[in-house]
Design a protein that fits this description.
Radius of gyration of chain A: 33 Å
Distance between the termini of chain C: 43 Å
CATH class of chain C: Mainly Alpha
Order of helices and strands of chain C: HHHEE
Strand content of chain C: 5-15%
Chains: A alpha/beta (734), B alpha+beta (114), C mainly alpha (89)
Number of strands of chain A: 10
CATH architecture of chain C: Orthogonal Bundle
Oligomer: heterotrimer
Helix content of chain A: 55-70%
Helix content of chain C: 25-40%
Largest sheet of chain C: 2 strands, antiparallel
Number of helices of chain C: 3
Number of strands of chain C: 2
């Protein structure tokens, strides 16, 4: 029978590289029965031609039953009884890694310690006395390795070859007397009752005392009872749960080993992170780099998502509307008002908002990458000096960055500021940071009126928000809060790392889910109310749900407001109606634009009947087109940006025929007729600056009282109107 | 014997020459300070790569508490990883942790070189 | 007091979310050791990774927009943080 060798170790301890170095190409990868966890097995040829099967166990920090990986690892070790277990530990992070080693020693299995990443440890000034460590672990052989350079692999092979029987020695793992007593008693009981005989009884006893959920279901009631009593006795006399005592003695033991076997030189080495920081936090280049980074984020968000936005919009307007129609007819619900509610109300309202999910996914992706890489903390550090010039300080930067996502948490995030005045100012300004809900509006208008420079348009909107915030801050620190002193900035800078796909994915998923929840509740309700207001006739000639939008209650209210916006170029009642509804949430602006500009007219959906098969085909083909277009746009970010420089003309990639005949969605078409580029710009500026949504106003009131809230509502209305008028009037002159 | 003018400066760092000392030519300011036999210097004058020891924090209680939370307290060795121009400082403290602090805060931390 | 207990006490005394680095420095522990101990308490249900957000915008999945700087942990029992006890929006 060939030897079996199991590789155990923490995730990131470099197990895989060692596994590959040992087995070469002779690997077999499968799954553990019933689990999604990968099982890797390979064949190792020892120098003396002997063969050994190497099993790469899942990476774990512990051998409890907390995760499936841990259970698999420990069951393999206990049941397959490998000839030797090689514990792969990261020498540069020995304390954490030894926790698993202690638990392997508790089982009492033949162990070899592979001390991986020795080069990194040496660089960090960590000196490990291997013979001392080996002695303390109970004469466990220790092999130093640098897995990534295959250094030490031959030595490990040699060690495995001569490793026949485990060296006998006293088990180095000891527990406090109280625990030890109970463990021995329980262990004797387990042996007497012949329970779980394939496992070492002293280990089962320890795990039961630790409260292991997996094992406690596998032992008979008598043992469970005895365990409960033992745990109670321990708690009574030590005033602490046994699992805490056990973990603590493990840590104490590791502390002792480290103390005598590891020596650290105090010298701090310059890491890769430090080198990156020299560039990214440079006093001169830091801010431009930050701006460039944000510019890239918005280019990415606008260009990459746009084709998908069109795709989702098309699918909602076409196939989904067709299917809804078909369903209503089949259910004999095709009365006018039902169709109006479903198609004009729900599908036009919620559907138009849902179309922007791709935009948000892109924004979330970009933000998650920046966060997970560790850049966000640097951004705060770099911006500190800049913020101070405007009476703010670096920590205000954080709520402001939060504001790019959503104003509500931004208002609450000001609680991290020490000073009340700073808090008030920061919360006041945070609402000028263009939130995620405003982005879809810019994307929609950007695509219609600014075409390829939509990314720059969006960037300009964000910048306008920042500019207004800066001006407001200057005004406030000059005139409202004079003589305030800023609290200095200090922050921890986590090392840079390559963003982990799981983290990024998790962030995108939770945030998108949250947005969808919002669309399913708040926006659905708002769409319904807008539809209702649009359906109530204000003239005797109309009947419910069969009224010209302009003659409805909604239209009448909006018409009263409309003249106010005449000087800003969007005196159309439909635009002002959208602004009123936008107070609920800014996403609703699109929903109500959809209902008033498109919902009222009969779309082509009514006239032609399309088969389900054709619809499905259209969905598929347009998705393919959108993907190609996205790819093209992503590549073209580079030449398009460089072409700004005079005399540079880099050809752009064209994967899809030029989008001249590109079909606008219904809403895009309607808006293109209703706005001019300048009035669209003014409208977007108004959207950017006017009253933040209901939720934010509520948060402001909650945090700073009614007066401050009212001051903000008033200020934002005035400044939004003034800015929109200014842009429109000046723009019209040019 | 410390220079009386500098000790004065030492006590009230706002509105005195120290701010300009810090932002200008670090080396010259430092020579000036050390020529006057001053035992300590503000952190903003330490150069990158140097390891210093914190001896005094001239700031009020809340700030001290925040500093301690982050791991900056009297007697702790601090290694300066970055100190350029008017930008923020990056420090390495215990456990290889990196801290970023603003320049104005660095003026209030007094250190000695080992 | 045992080091594990000290970790929990640190959170109880400070009542603010802490990073692994802060725990390590405050208790003079190695970073990896502190990480292991915090994980222990997380598994035991006493600490949790702080999910920022005020739950005003969409369910209990945490805030969709709040950026993170460093992973922070907090007590599960006494919720503290940027905007936990709020729900008015």
């Amino acid at each position: 029978m060939p030897m079996t060798i199991a590789l155990a170790g923490n995730p990131n301890a470099g197990k895989s590289t060692i596994f590959n170095a040992l087995t070469g190409s002779q690997q077999h990868i499968g799954n553990y029965p019933g689990k999604t966890i990968e099982r890797k097995e390979g064949l190792l040829h020892l120098p003396n031609q002997q063969e050994a099967v190497v099993v790469d166990l899942p990476g774990t920090y512990s051998l409890t039953s907390f995760s499936a990986e841990e259970i698999i690892a420990r069951e393999f070790i206990l049941e397959a009884k490998p000839t030797a277990v090689v514990a792969v530990v990261d020498a540069a992070n020995l304390e954490r890694n030894l926790y698993l080693v202690v638990q392997l020693l508790e089982i009492g299995i033949p162990l070899i310690l592979a001390l991986n990443m020795c080069d990194v440890a040496t660089k960090r000034g960590i000196e490990i006395d291997r013979s001392s460590l080996s002695r303390q672990l109970g004469n466990v052989p220790i092999v130093p390795l640098v897995g990534s350079q295959s250094v030490g692999i031959d030595e490990l092979k040699a060690e495995l070859q001569q490793f026949t029987t485990p060296l006998e020695g006293p088990n180095p793992i000891t527990f406090p007397p109280l625990l030890e007593r109970e463990r021995v008693a329980l262990s004797n009981l387990i042996e007497a009752e012949a329970v779980l005989t394939q496992y070492p009884s002293h280990w089962v006893a320890l795990k039961l005392l630790e409260g292991d959920t997996d094992l406690s279901t596998k032992v008979p009631a008598s043992i469970q009872e005895a365990t409960a009593q033992a745990i109670q006795r321990i708690v009574e006399s030590a005033n602490e749960d046994p699992d805490i005592l056990i973990a603590d003695s493990r840590y104490a033991l590791i502390g002792l080993w480290i103390q005598s076997a590891v020596h650290r030189h105090a010298d701090t080495t310059i890491t890769i992170s430090d080198r990156i920081d020299r560039v990214l936090t440079h006093p001169v280049w830091g801010i431009p780099l930050f701006l460039a980074m944000m510019w890239l984020v918005f280019q990415f968000t606008a260009n990459v998502s746009a084709p998908y936005v069109d795709w989702v919009g098309g699918v909602i307007e076409g196939p989904i509307t067709h299917r809804a129609d078909a369903l209503l007819t089949a259910l004999h619900l095709n009365q006018l008002w039902v169709r109006s509610l479903v198609v004009d109300g729900v599908i036009a309202g919620v559907g138009n908002v849902l179309a922007f999910v791709p935009v948000l996914v892109c924004l979330f992706l970009a933000l998650a990458v920046l966060e997970d890489s560790g850049y966000m903390a640097r951004a705060a550090l770099v911006m500190d000096r800049f913020m101070r010039k405007f009476g703010l300080h670096g920590k205000s930067f954080l709520p402001l960055v939060v504001g790019f996502g959503c104003s509500v948490p931004a208002v609450y995030a000001t609680r991290t500021l020490e000073n009340e005045t700073d808090r008030k100012i920061t919360a006041f300004l945070a609402t000028f940071m263009s939130c995620g809900a405003r982005l879809p509006v810019y994307v929609l208008f950007g695509a219609i009126f600014f075409g390829r420079s939509a990314g720059n348009f969006i960037f300009a909107m964000y910048f306008t928000g920042i500019g207004v915030a800066v001006l407001t801050s200057l005004l406030m620190t000059r005139f409202v809060f004079r003589g305030k002193e800023a609290f200095p900035l200090m922050l921890e800078l986590p090392p840079y790392r390559i963003p982990r796909a799981t983290n990024v994915f998790h962030e995108i998923r939770t945030r998108t889910a949250s947005f969808l929840e919002n669309a399913g509740t708040l926006i659905l309700a708002a769409s319904f109310i807008i539809w209702l207001f649009l359906s109530i006739p204000m003239r005797p000639s109309g009947s419910f749900a069969d009224v010209e939008a302009g003659d409805s209650l909604y239209g009448n209210v909006a018409q009263v407001m409309a003249p106010v916006f005449q000087p800003a170029g969007f005196g159309d009642w439909r635009a002002s109606g959208a602004l009123i509804s936008g107070f609920v949430a800014k996403e609703v602006v699109i929903a109500s634009l959809g209902q008033t500009y498109v919902g009222g007219e009969d779309g082509p959906a009514m006239t032609e009947s399309v088969s389900a098969g054709d619809d499905l085909k259209m969905v598929g083909i347009s998705l393919g087109d959108a993907t190609l277009l996205t790819l093209q746009e992503t590549i073209n970010i580079v030449p398009r940006s460089l072409n700004w420089v005079p005399n540079v003309d880099i050809p752009e990639v064209a994967l899809v025929p030029t989008a001249d005949e590109e079909e606008d969605t219904l809403l895009e078409g309607a808006l293109a007729d209703a706005f001019t580029p300048i009035s669209a710009l003014a409208f977007n500026i108004f959207i950017l600056l006017y009253i933040p949504c209901m939720a934010t106003v509520g948060a402001m009131r909650h945090e700073f009282g009614t007066r401050w809230m009212l001051a903000q509502v008033l200020y934002t209305l005035v400044i939004a109107w003034a800015a929109a008028v200014l842009v429109y009037q000046v723009g019209s002159l040019l | 014997m410390p220079n009386p003018k500098l000790s004065h400066c030492h006590e009230q760092e706002h509105g005195c020459t120290l701010a300009s000392l810090c932002d200008g030519d670090i080396l010259r300011s430092r020579q000036h300070l050390q020529a006057s036999n001053h035992p300590s210097l503000p952190l903003c004058m330490a150069t990158a790569g140097e390891t210093v020891r914190l001896i005094r924090i001239s700031a009020e209680g809340k700030l001290r508490k925040r500093l301690a939370d982050l791991g900056i307290s009297i007697g702790e060795p601090i290694r300066i990883m970055q100190n350029k121009g008017n930008g923020p400082l990056i420090l390495a403290i215990k456990n290889d942790t990196r801290l970023g602090i603003g320049r104005d805060l660095a003026r209030q931390l007094w250190v000695v070189t080992d | 007091m045992s080091s594990l207990r000290q970790v929990l006490t640190l959170f109880e005394e400070n009542r603010i979310p802490l990073t692994i680095e802060q725990v390590a420095r405050n208790l003079d522990l190695d970073r990896g050791m502190a990480e292991g101990m915090v994980t222990f308490w997380v598994q035991k249900g006493k600490l949790r990774l702080r999910t920022v957000g005020c739950h005003t915008c969409g369910g209990n999945s945490g805030c969709p927009f709040m950026p993170k700087l460093a992973d922070m942990y907090e007590l599960t029992r006494i919720p503290v943080g940027a905007c936990q006890n709020k729900n008015t929006g």
